[in-house]
From TrEMBL, chain A:
Cited Gene3D superfamilies: Aldehyde Dehydrogenase, Chain A, domain 1, Aldehyde Dehydrogenase, Chain A, domain 2
Family the UniProt entry places it in: Belongs to the aldehyde dehydrogenase family.
The protein's name in its UniProt record: Aldehyde dehydrogenase
Catalytic residues (positions): 263
Record domain Aldehyde dehydrogenase: where: 28-494
Keyword Membrane attributed: no
CDD domains assigned: ALDH_ACDHII_AcoD-like
Keyword list, A-Z: Oxidoreductase
GO molecular function, one term: aldehyde dehydrogenase [NAD(P)+] activity
TrEMBL record, chain B:
Designated name of the protein: UDP-glucose 4-epimerase
Database matches in Pfam families: DUF779
InterPro entries linked: DUF779 (IPR008497)
The species this protein was found in: Marivirga sericea
Lineage: Bacteria, Pseudomonadati, Bacteroidota, Cytophagia, Cytophagales
Domain of life: Bacteria
């Protein structure tokens, strides 16, 4: 992997306040215990601001504010709620470049991804749910000439939303937009690795959202996340993260008998059928890019296509081109416009990925490219950079079974469609999958046979607001995106009405 | 032969956490974000059951993993270590600015033959109650 020899030209670094407080009840609120913690940028390993170290007192205050706001927000018209979402979208759009740079400093990802994906998707998701709530209708049925049943959707109430660090603003948007559209009020807890970008956004939209509707408390999981998940005054918890914490949150939710949404990761197979190499054309070029998609967002995506399944007849030639394309990935300063892949989000992630590179080699997987950290200079020596890595091996190896959450994929071959499906499904997880083929029958039959909530067919890593996203198996349950999300934040009020003046005659 | 051992640095962190929280336990996570890392909780805070495997006791802390995950891990020896970093999740060490991490190596054939038996989380609970 190329080492920087001279300083890359970077865009101007955004400025930050010395510290950020919680945002509760429409105001900036100092943490009850008065403590803050450093936010370290993965770009250079240096602290660039501080975040409030929230505790149960702060979480309780946020829940109080949310309950107070719920009394009016839940009765605010759909048109008015939609307008709030539209204004949020406009503010993000107007400040897109600044927010993209902030996200890069907070998370370490390359600026070009924030500009092209994270931020435009945030704008679109808010607009989508603004539209969805306007077009949404309840249902009514006439059971007989005297009896009418009305199903009305009512907001759940105050919800707790725990956000991961891989797409800090976008994952917050995925949770906040449908909750607000549905009429819920929310207490959001961003990840402690990336607590700042959402606060920068809150500064921009603080006057747009009515006080208490959207509250954000920063802090550490055991100190702020846990009291939020344990609270008996929330109506739902939405969580994106890993299996153990997911189980723990469900355990707390079971004590309060409230619903949860779980998005817990995956080990997504990306399947390349023999026909992809029937021609050397633009479609094959798209397929090769599809295989290299494992490096998007430094592999820190729960749907990272971290297993490549390729037909054995084309494996050598196909992988040769995939490796070539992977080696062409330009690493460098995340704020440089030509950088294609940035830094991993934190030091412990960096160390964990290196430990997987180690066990992969020990288990006998062949390193086709990468396989080590990337030594970048010019001020990036202490950042968390890993070379995009491709292992070749078999599906029982740990690197084929565990979510590494780094720019690492593992390739194995198959002989038949049946074998491809068997390998694809031989995993604990079922979040994403990819299927690439020129065969019309395979394009429908293989995705149906793969046990995953999202199968990309002849594309990968698209996340439109209009398509439901979520997992099968140990990848969780519940969905995000799509108008069906509204019902994940609402419950059904059934009014069963009799228009018959006559008694039943029982008593 | 033990399945899980521990580094000196991890011992220091456990000592400090034990002073504050009392007895501890570990559950190895899988999946997204901070997954594939060991989570440290107060003993009993995380409810284990028939879907878990008790793998070992490491420095006085019971160490668990989900049963299906264990199928892919059972041929590897684990060392509980610690690294500076800002993990998320509810693991107790996170506010200290460090994160527990697992380092793995393959068992040798001889080691595989002398491994201590594991038990399910349910069997563990029965044994622990006695």
């Amino acid at each position: 992997m190329e080492t920087l020899e001279k300083t890359q030209k970077t865009v101007e670094r955004p400025t930050f306040k010395a510290q950020y407080d919680h945002f509760i009840g429409g105001e900036w609120v100092k943490p009850a215990k008065g403590e803050y913690f450093d936010n370290i940028s993965p770009v250079d390993g240096k602290a660039f601001t501080k975040a409030a170290r929230g505790t149960k007192e702060d979480v309780d205050k946020a829940i109080d504010a949310a309950h107070k706001a719920f009394a009016t927000w839940s009765k605010t018209s759909a048109a008015a709620r939609a307008n709030v979402l539209l204004k949020i979208a406009d503010v993000i759009e107007e400040n897109l470049e600044m927010l993209a740079r902030v996200e890069t400093i907070d998370n370490g990802k390359a600026l070009r991804e924030c500009r092209a994906a994270d931020l435009p998707l945030c704008v679109d998701h808010f607009r989508y749910f603004a539209g969805a709530i306007r077009a949404d209708e309840s249902s009514i049925s006439e059971h007989d000439e005297h009896t009418v049943s009305i199903n009305l959707q009512e907001p759940l109430g105050v919800v707790g939303q725990i956000i991961p660090w891989n797409f800090p603003l976008l994952m917050a948007t995925w949770k906040i937009a449908p909750a607000l559209a549905a009429g819920c009020c929310t207490v959001v807890k961003p990840a402690e690795q990336t607590p700042t970008s959402l606060m920068v956004l809150m500064e921009l939209i603080q006057d747009v959202v009515p006080a208490g509707v959207l509250n954000v408390v920063t802090g550490f999981g055991p100190e702020a996340g846990k009291p939020l998940a344990q609270s008996d005054r929330i109506a739902k918890v939405a969580f994106t993260g890993e299996t153990t914490t997911g189980r723990l949150i469900m355990q707390y939710a079971s004590e309060n008998l409230i619903p949860v949404t779980m998005e817990l990761g995956g080990k997504s197979p990306n399947i390349f059928m023999k026909s992809v190499m029937d021609k050397d054309d633009e479609f094959l070029d798209k397929c090769i890019e599809g295989a290299v998609m494992f490096a998007l967002n430094q592999g820190e995506v729960c749907t990272c296509p971290s297993r490549i399944l390729v037909h054995e007849d084309i494996a050598d030639e196909f992988m040769k081109r995939v490796v070539e394309r992977t080696k062409a990935i330009k690493m460098g300063h995340p704020l440089a416009e030509d950088t294609m892949m940035g830094a991993q989000a934190s030091n412990d992630q960096f160390e964990k990925i290196l430990s997987y590179l180690d066990i992969g080699k020990q288990e006998g997987a062949e390193v086709l490219c990468g396989g080590a950290k990337a030594d970048l200079n010019s001020g990036l020596e202490n950042g968390y950079y890993i070379q995009p890595t491709i292992f070749k091996g078999h599906n029982k190896m740990r690197v084929f079974q565990e979510e590494i959450f780094g720019p690492v994929t593992s390739v194995c071959t198959f002989k038949t469609v049946e074998e491809a499906i068997e390998i694809a499904n031989d995993t604990m997880y079922g979040l994403g999958a990819g299927l690439w083929s020129r065969d019309a029958h395979e394009l429908y039959q293989v995705p149906r046979a793969v046990k995953a909530g999202r199968v990309w067919v002849n594309n990968y890593h698209a996340y439109p607001a209009h398509a439901p996203f979520g997992g099968y198996k140990k990848s969780g349950f519940g969905r995000e995106n799509h108008k069906m999300m509204l019902d994940h934040y609402r419950q059904t009020k059934n009014m069963l009405i009799s228009y018959d003046k006559n008694k039943l005659g029982f008593f | 032969m033990e399945r899980v051992s521990i580094s000196d640095k991890a011992i220091e962190v456990i000592d400090e956490l034990r002073d504050r929280f009392g007895e501890l336990m570990f559950h190895q996570s899988g999946g997204c974000c901070d997954g594939s890392s060991p989570m440290c909780f107060e003993k009993g805070d995380f409810k284990v059951g028939g879907g878990d495997v008790w793998m070992d006791q490491v420095y006085g802390c019971d160490f668990f993993m989900s049963k299906d995950q264990f199928e892919y891990w059972k041929h590897t020896h684990l060392t509980l270590d610690v690294t500076p970093g800002r993990g998320s999740s509810f693991s107790l060490e996170i506010p200290m600015g460090v994160r527990f991490i697992i380092r793995s190596r393959l068992f040798t054939m001889e080691e595989m033959e002398s491994l201590k038996p594991v038990m399910t989380g349910e069997e563990y609970l029965e044994a622990d109650a006695k």
